[in-house]
Amino acid sequence: MKSLPLFVALAMGLAAQETRHEVTNASPNPADDARGLSSQVPDVYAIRTQFDRVVVLRFKFDTDLLAGLEKMVKQEKIKNAVILSAFGSVRGYQVHQVSNRDFPSKNMFVKDPTMPADIIGMSGFVMDGKLHPHISLAIPEKSFGGHLEPGTKVFTFAVVTLGVLPDQMDFTKLDDKNYR
Predict the structure, then answer these.
(1) Which residues are CB-neighbours of 134 under 8 A, at least 6 positions away?
(2) Where in the sequence is the domain holding 100, given as residue range(s)?
(3) What is the model's pTM?
(4) How high is the mean pLDDT of the chain?
(5) Is there a domain that residue 9 lies in?
(6) Residue 119 DSSP SS3
(7) Into how many domains does the chain fold?
(8) Residue 64 DSSP code
(9) Inside any domain, residue 140
(10) Of 45, 104, 119, 141, which is most buried with the most CB atoms under 10 A?
(11) Is residue 25 part of a domain?
């Protein structure tokens, strides 16, 4: 009977590994957050292109996934790319998701360095050498995802496939929240 409180205390300690904090992403110019829609910005537009090559990256145990992606984008001289897929597993994770519906936008950072998870997908872009990766993870209770953050360490292995696009592509507005 005396071991039950110890078990409860251990279980509470394990569950307490996940941390969350919210960050507001105000625009440098506060007027941008208050601005409405512009008739000069189309509701949707297309950018036509083709892959120059496909690069498959393999990450080993305990490698930081985001740092490894950044290293390989630089090493492989990738200016623009589409993140096509990923699979493998992680030892712990940190992601962030948007957490509100009005400007300025806010992000909720969720971190659990002790929770293993399967990588069930990754998407996003490399735009002018800068990464914008979204990862999907699964644990027994749920699947979830968000923007990949530092501290997401590989467990068994991870494989990420990039479709490399021409350097001259202009993706400057793709992830610009003020282009609306």
Answers:
(1) 83, 122, 123, 124, 145, 146, 147, 148
(2) 18-165
(3) 0.87
(4) 92
(5) no
(6) strand
(7) 1
(8) B
(9) yes
(10) 119
(11) yes
Instruction: Average the pLDDT over each of 26-30, 51-55, 62-66, 122-126 and give the range with the smallest value.
Output: 26-30
Cα–Cα dist 28/20, whole Å: 25
pLDDT confidence of 79, banded at 50, 70, 90?
A: very high
Please report the pLDDT score of residue 5 as a whole number.
58
Residues in the chain: 180
Q: Which of 54, 177, 72 has its CA nearest to residue 131?
A: 72
Question: Residue 2's pLDDT band (boundaries 50, 70, 90)?
Answer: low
CA distance linking residue 50 with residue 61, whole number of Å: 33
Q: Which two tokens stand for residue 101?
A: 């519906």
Burial class (CB in 10 A: 0-12, 13-18, 19+), 132: middle
User: Residue 95 corresponds to which tokens in the numbers above?
Assistant: 């992601």
Residue 133 falls within a domain, yes or no? yes
Q: Report the CATH number at residue 144.
A: 3.30.1330.80
- Return the residue matching tokens 């892959």: 51
Read off the pLDDT of each residue in 71-94 and give the average, rounded to a whole number: 98
Percent of the chain with pLDDT over 70: 91
